[in-house]
Amino acid sequence: MKIFAVNPIKFNILQPKKQIENNHSDYSQNRLSVLSPLTKDTFSFCGKIPSIVTPTMEDLVNRTKAVDVLRFNILRLAKYDIPCPCCGHIMLPVDKFNEFEEKILSTTDPTEILRHIKSLKRYLHPVESKIFSMMESKNHDHPDMSLLEMLREKLPKAEKKIIHEQSSILTNIGIMSRDLPPEKSTAIKDLINETYTRIFDNRETSRFGRRVFIGKLQAILDINNTQDKTAQKIIAEAAKLPMAYNNPDAFIVKYAKRNYHGANADQKIALRMLSNSLATIEHIKPSKLNGETRPENLALECACDNNRRNHESVLTQILQNPSMIINYNRYMTRLVELHKQGKLEKSYIAQTNRTYSSASAGILDADLSALRNETTQKTKKTDSGITLTRDERRKLRHAKAKLIKSRKAVKKRNNKY
Questions:
Q1: For the chain, what are the domain ranges?
Q2: DSSP 136-160
């Protein structure tokens, strides 16, 4: 039976059909607090999953343990400042987020909460960074003002800006829908009127949902079964609707209107500001598209992009985030650097790159020539204390073999005489 090795523990991996769902909203599945820290500082992902016909309960337990250790090992890479392959922002290690959560839940003082956020400011995404700067400035003048009160103070102005942006986009969608068949055009018009009602209604029960709106729009247009350019343009225009992850005003509107009550409101807001930066496990080929839970199909990705991706393919993800082409190369370059430092296996990097390349039709294909040109990186000390490169050691072996061969030839010649 083949063994799946994860330093310093070895587990048998069985039942290849068992899958782990992509993470969408509950990031606790990636923390794995039940596992004790591994002693070695080297990450090893190797081996194959053998096929079996009728797995026993012990087989299933072993499989679960091995997958947990695999996920735990990959998550541990985040402590080396790994950039997200999608957005390019440095991902927050799980252990740091856990420590941050403990500190946040132990206090209700806004000044203290902001101080804890500031200690991890380098991990904040651009929108959260702007919100934090606003809160820090407000806290300087009003130390007793809660984070929720700060957001609600900015709500009227932010809401006007968001309504103006949303109205402009909805108007454009309405104009473009005039080129569609009458039944689809009428359905979109009704949807837009319903959406306007929600946007201008201040009641929390009638809040506008961007994802719900786009989903209804796709259903009307039957977007998966049409090549209509007008329909594609309408969906592209709807995708421009502001979101909390890329628009500070949308962030303020979304979380100032949340039904937060009591002393834990500020704690929830603080955790939300850093939860998007959290390092999570992503299936390169999603489970829903028959992606397996194997080392070469698992990569790190920030919680924000993991959640937004849902079960979409890598190609769809690239279309939604064109900068991923550049950010992916940054991600792989960092992994290569970790390999040169002796912290990550070369095979994992090469296999992961092949998976990304296959899933993206060759669009994502990092230059891994540095992995093949390592003659100056791998060195070994001889008995005399001199450090030799791999190429020098090879030449030395050939020289020794040639010397031994020549000595045998001399000895054989002497025996003749």
A1: 17-45+71-86+283-367, 94-275, 388-416
A2: HHHHHH-TT--HHHHHHHHHHHHHH
